[in-house]
Specification:
This protein has about 550 residues and is of the alpha+beta class. Among the domains are: about 190 residues, Rossmann fold, CATH 3.40.50; about 130 residues, no CATH class. It has 18 helices and 17 strands. Helix 7 crosses helix 11 and helix 15 runs parallel beside helix 16. The model has no long low-confidence stretch (mean pLDDT about 85).
Length: about 550
């Protein structure tokens, strides 16, 4: 049955000793073989570039402007498609393409689904769906964090762990907020004093735009008061008169008296004089109303003081009355928050304590499940590595409980091994050789491959330092892993290669004359019966 996701084709151009090569890959176990120095490791180097490794301009073939590596994948896996869509590189059909172009000057261009991409995006993708087993991965196996990841994956408790970690992150956030509140509490008295002072200064004024405008108008009126008073005196002289002369109103009354005494002569004009008297009085009242202010000139000091208050606050808080009012609102809100720190502290501490109890329960559950999983994984991995000719070796995942919670719960893991019966258990990182680590890791891959999101497994130098029956066992183990995903392995052993579904032979050819000699690597693919024939020739050469 064809897997939902696998590498179909790798195109290499101007890449070290490869000039122009297309290599076909297939589901199952693909082995890459060739003599030392033939260039077989370059194939894996090219794949590592596809999966986000940094490029070195020295891989560009001599006298070429650029090197190119391009990988094409068959992709029907819904999880892969969803991941790529979320990453911003949607897959329209069932083929995924990744391409890297490395210029001779060191510049690189990267493409994912024909879109420009970054090494970070390629790395995120490969971390999720590609597994490289080699020297670096062996070192990862020595990490307690990685060991815990493997155990949780085996115990199928990742979902519970994610729930725990989500709550643990919330605890961290709440704790950070609590510490901030505690710091705020220690300095809040000084801040509150400052806020009280500033708010008193603002509230003493009670600023509004309308109030400022009215003050400016009143200031103008007060400043014009003396001028109005002089005009008022002049109007009195005109309408009322002074000691030496009569005003208009008095003269009009004299005229009215004269007309009344001589009605037979002025009877028709008397009514007009009455109207004139009424209009003249109305005009005088109007003048007096406009010129006689309702405020005391002594108000000027108070008006100027308030306007100076506005000026100071505008300089301090922004330049407009609106800025002053906004600052007041901000200060009031901050003051309210600081005054409620005690209540907030109590609430936050209560929420943290409740969450801690919940996390402790979840961590204890995770720990119990890890104890069960550790015992089972220890036994299964022991059986696997013994099949890989680590006779008498025993693996133990020791799980202890920490008092303090951490991101993975309350469990502490130690990866222990006894490589020689009766000689005691030691930490794997203290006693295991590189070859033993590779076999332990392969054993883990056999156990975990059916549960993992990993679809493509790359094995590099996993057969270093072994041969005979151990190599045969190693080949069988690689075949087992390939049942749950595509495996691509570099090997120099026919005992390993005999289990492959596709054999890729890398050879190099030296051409030229005394003036210029060039080396070119080529890859040939063998399938079916041709594999057995080639394996036999490899065995004979060995």
């Amino acid at each position: 049955m064809e897997p939902n996701f696998y590498l179909k084709q790798l195109i290499i151009q101007n890449f070290a000793t490869f000039k122009n090569q297309t290599i076909q890959f297939h589901p199952g176990l693909n082995t890459i073989v060739g003599e030392t120095g033939s260039g077989k490791s370059l194939v894996l180097d090219a794949l590592q570039l596809i999966f986000g490794a940094r490029a070195d301009k020295r891989i560009v073939r001599k006298n070429c402007e650029f090197a190119l590596v391009e990988a094409r994948f068959s992709c029907k896996d819904a999880n892969v498609k969803e991941f790529l869509t979320d990453l911003g590189y949607p897959l329209e059909e069932d083929e995924l393409t990744i391409k890297r172009v490395i210029s001779a000057n060191g510049a690189t261009k990267n493409y994912l689904n024909h879109l420009n991409t970054t090494l970070l995006a390629l790395g995120e993708f490969s971390k999720k769906f590609i597994d490289l087993v080699g020297q670096f991965e062996n070192q990862k196996l020595l990490s307690a964090f990685y060991q815990m990841q493997l155990l949780d994956q085996f115990g199928n408790i990742n979902t519970e762990l994610e729930n725990y970690q989500e709550k643990f992150q919330k605890l961290r956030k709440l704790t950070k907020e609590l510490n901030h509140l505690i710091e705020s509490k220690s300095s809040r008295s000084h801040r509150l004093d400052y806020l009280h002072y500033q708010l008193n200064e603002i509230q003493l004024l009670s600023p509004t735009s309308q109030d400022e405008e009215e003050l400016l108008e009143k200031k103008s009126q007060i400043i014009n008061f003396e001028k109005n008073q002089r005009m008022n005196s002049t109007m009195d002289d005109i309408f009322i008169g002074e000691e030496s002369s009569s005003g208009l109103l008095n003269q009009l009354k004299t005229l009215q008296s004269l007309y009344t005494k001589n009605q037979d002569l002025f009877s028709e004009d008397l009514s007009k004089l009455c109207v004139a008297d009424d209009l003249l009085n109305q005009l005088y009242d109007s003048f007096k109303k406009k010129l006689n202010s309702e405020f005391d000139p002594r108000e000027l000091d108070g008006v100027i003081e308030r306007l100076d208050h506005y000026t100071r606050l505008k300089k301090k808080f922004g330049g407009t009355v609106f800025d002053i009012i906004k600052t007041q609102d901000d200060f009031l809100r901050e003051k309210e928050e600081l005054e409620s720190v005690e209540i907030t502290l109590d609430d936050k501490e209560g929420e943290i304590n409740s969450l801690k109890k919940n996390l402790e329960t979840m961590a204890n559950t995770l720990h119990r499940k890890r104890l069960v999983a550790a015992k089972k994984l220890s036994q299964e991995l022991t059986n696997r590595i013994r099949d890989l000719k680590m006779a008498g070796a025993t693996i133990e995942f020791n799980i202890e409980q920490n008092e303090e919670l951490n991101e993975s719960g309350c469990s502490k893991i130690e990866f222990m091994a006894q490589t020689n019966p009766g000689e005691g258990f030691y930490r794997v990182k203290d006693i295991a050789s590189g070859g033993e680590l590779s076999r332990i890791l392969l054993g883990l891959r056999q156990i975990l491959s059916s549960q993992d999101s990993i679809s493509i497994f790359l094995f590099d130098e996993i057969d270093t330092g072994i041969g005979g029956e151990t190599a045969t066992s190693l080949g069988k183990a690689l075949r087992d892993v390939s049942k749950n995903g595509q495996v691509i392995a570099i090997t120099h052993l026919p005992q390993v290669a005999q289990f492959c579904d596709s054999l890729i032979l890398v050879e190099k050819d030296i051409q030229g004359n005394t003036k210029e000699i060039r080396t070119e690597s080529r890859a040939k693919e063998f399938r079916g019966q041709m594999i057995k024939t080639k394996i036999l020739s490899m065995a004979q050469l060995a």
